[in-house]
């Protein structure tokens, strides 16, 4: 018995079903992203409280730290819930990177309990403590990045790019809070710490600029309102105090609580915006799925209706427009003309839509590709010079300023030189 050959209609409907399946996986990934941002927020608070607890030798924020640990554990449980819905049989390269990032995060989460025990008995330094939390949060941010990178819908990709950069900027703000707490609690700032804080402030600005470029009007307005708030103005005054500090100056250690309070108010304001972004992202995914399912239903009904229409065979030339000679529609004698034309129009419309999506997706992905280049260049500098991530970024930024270039162009040059040297 000869095999049944799929028809044009079969492939057309199958393409729409594949689109729906991809959107449903994106919804799962987006749901995971919202849980990731919630967990990051709690870890940021826990990191700041732990630093003050350590620097003050357990005299400050002991109760607050315990309460925050409980809040982080709840956020961790919520983060783990969507993991069961991920399709682990999807072995595409992009999914592989996402799954690797999740595996890294799960490994880091296993190290949290021993770290907290060391914090409780004061056997870890504030610097090491900060680095351990930074490592975990960086892994969580990588999950957001990879979720954006596997998206094949331009609108969802733009939303994820906006969320990733906002969350990354918020993390730089959290690191600024953590390192500032160490300085204010000890009453001293080294030049290295001052440079680190300044670098984090500039990194925040870059992330929030990209966020503005890819976000919608309402979150943009919310962000501008937060940046003009009293908490941000007060934080700027404390930042100036840090930059003016010189060795031998006296800083009241009580300022540490003021620093923590105003930095936390700003970061909590960011979390409200982050929640709005998360809600809008899930609504966007849901609406996309609803629309795609409705399109599939209409396609089916339309094709079914046309297939039942009785129509005498006609010459193709009698039903084509004047420019039929250039048309790609060929109708054989005896074929239902309306059905053929309808399928042709559906295929053409789908092709044009996919082309438009491809162009929009390429534009949205540009920010992700630039991020990859900068991260790769930073990694090369860290490996070759043995410097910190902050110093690597500072050198890239300084080179960009000195040569009047974009930082991504400098990063591309670093990678190019490294590849050239490696080939030799």
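Sequence proposed for the structure above (424 residues):
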């Amino acid at each position: 018995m000869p095999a049944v050959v799929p028809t044009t209609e079969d492939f057309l409907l199958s393409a729409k079903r594949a689109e729906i399946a991809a959107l449903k996986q994106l919804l799962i990934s987006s749901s995971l992203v919202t849980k990731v941002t919630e967990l990051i927020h709690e870890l940021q608070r826990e990191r700041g409280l732990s630093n003050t607890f350590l620097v003050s030798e357990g005299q400050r924020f002991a109760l607050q730290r315990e309460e925050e640990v409980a809040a982080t554990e709840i956020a961790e449980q919520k983060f783990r819930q969507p993991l069961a819905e991920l399709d682990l049989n999807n072995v595409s390269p992009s999914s592989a990177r996402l799954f690797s990032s999740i595996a890294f995060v799960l490994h880091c989460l296993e190290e949290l309990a021993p770290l907290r025990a060391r914090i409780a008995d004061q056997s870890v330094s504030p610097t090491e403590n900060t680095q351990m939390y930074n490592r975990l949060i960086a892994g969580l941010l990588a999950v957001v990045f990879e979720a954006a990178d596997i998206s094949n819908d331009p609108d969802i990709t733009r939303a994820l790019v906006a969320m990733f950069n906002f969350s990354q900027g918020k993390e730089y703000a959290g690191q600024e809070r953590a390192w500032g707490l160490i300085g204010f609690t000890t009453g001293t700032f080294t030049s290295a710490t001052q440079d680190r804080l300044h670098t984090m402030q500039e990194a925040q600005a870059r992330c929030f600029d990209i966020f503005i470029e890819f976000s919608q009007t309402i979150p943009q307005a919310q962000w501008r309102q937060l940046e003009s708030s009293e908490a941000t103005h007060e934080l700027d005054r404390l930042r100036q105090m840090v930059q003016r500090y010189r060795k031998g100056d006296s800083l009241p250690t009580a300022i540490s609580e003021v620093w923590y309070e105003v930095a936390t108010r700003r970061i909590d304001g960011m979390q409200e915006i982050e929640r709005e972004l998360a809600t809008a992202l899930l609504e966007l995914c849901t609406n996309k799925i609803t629309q795609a399912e409705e399109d599939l239903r209409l396609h089916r009904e339309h094709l079914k209706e046309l297939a039942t229409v009785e129509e005498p065979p006609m010459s193709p030339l009698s039903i084509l427009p004047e420019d039929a000679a250039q048309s790609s529609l060929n109708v054989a004698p005896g074929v239902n003309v309306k059905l053929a034309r309808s399928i042709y129009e559906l295929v053409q419309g789908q092709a044009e839509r996919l082309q438009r999506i491809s162009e929009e997706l390429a534009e949205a992905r540009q920010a992700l590709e630039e991020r990859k280049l900068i991260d790769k260049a930073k990694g090369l500098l860290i490996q070759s010079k043995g410097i910190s991530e902050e110093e690597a970024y500072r050198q890239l930024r300084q080179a960009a300023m000195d040569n009047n270039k974009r930082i991504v162009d400098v990063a591309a040059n670093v990678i190019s030189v490294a590849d050239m040297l490696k080939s030799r």
